[in-house]
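wait is this the right file?? whatever heres the structure
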């Protein structure tokens, strides 16, 4: 493992119901990434968005050189394909790390889900598929999974996916900054 190398994957709900916090989420995430940029070590970020389809918006960006709006192409419409997005992101990142020399792999990996509800449109994967990946990466590779959901869905979804209760948080859309405080506690 490469010391002081953190890889973070944000998996963002881009369904239509997220429109009300789209701009706030964009601002909060960019501010949070600016904080991460100033900490010692290397931080690489991927961003996925899910609605009716899954999009890989940001591919392994090194925060030390990236400037700008990381969510420039984030947009909200459609439904919630949480399981498809989670499985695709975990599989893609796992394959990427598998191709790397052991001493080049990150010593810390965070997979962060932000959304407002349960899956209602995944076609390729089920909750058990994502749960299997979460548990495997958590217990074999020490990845940390964080989940922030509105509508008091975090416990329901997090428990179903095998995400530790300490790593789950319900948040009110108007208080999105509290979610990022939660991330600071877990990742900084």
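ok assuming it is, sequence goes like this
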């Amino acid at each position: 493992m490469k010391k002081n190398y953190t890889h973070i994957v944000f998996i963002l709900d881009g369904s239509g119901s997220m429109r009300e916090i789209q701009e706030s989420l964009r601002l909060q995430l960019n501010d949070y990434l600016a904080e991460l940029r100033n900490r010692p070590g290397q931080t690489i970020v991927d961003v996925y968005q899910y609605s009716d389809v899954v999009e890989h918006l940001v591919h392994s960006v090194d925060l030390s050189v990236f400037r700008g709006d990381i969510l420039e192409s984030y947009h909200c419409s459609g439904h919630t394909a949480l399981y498809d997005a989670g499985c695709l992101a975990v599989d893609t990142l796992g394959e990427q790390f598998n191709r790397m020399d052991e001493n080049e792999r990150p010593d810390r990996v965070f997979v962060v889900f932000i959304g407002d509800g349960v899956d209602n449109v995944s076609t390729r994967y089920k909750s058990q598929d994502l749960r299997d990946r979460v548990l495997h990466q958590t217990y074999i590779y020490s990845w940390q999974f964080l989940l922030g959901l509105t509508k008091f869905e975090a416990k329901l979804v997090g428990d179903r996916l095998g995400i530790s209760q300490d790593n789950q948080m319900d948040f009110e859309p108007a208080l999105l900054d509290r979610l990022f405080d939660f991330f600071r506690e877990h990742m900084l």
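The mean pLDDT is 95. so i think its the right one actually
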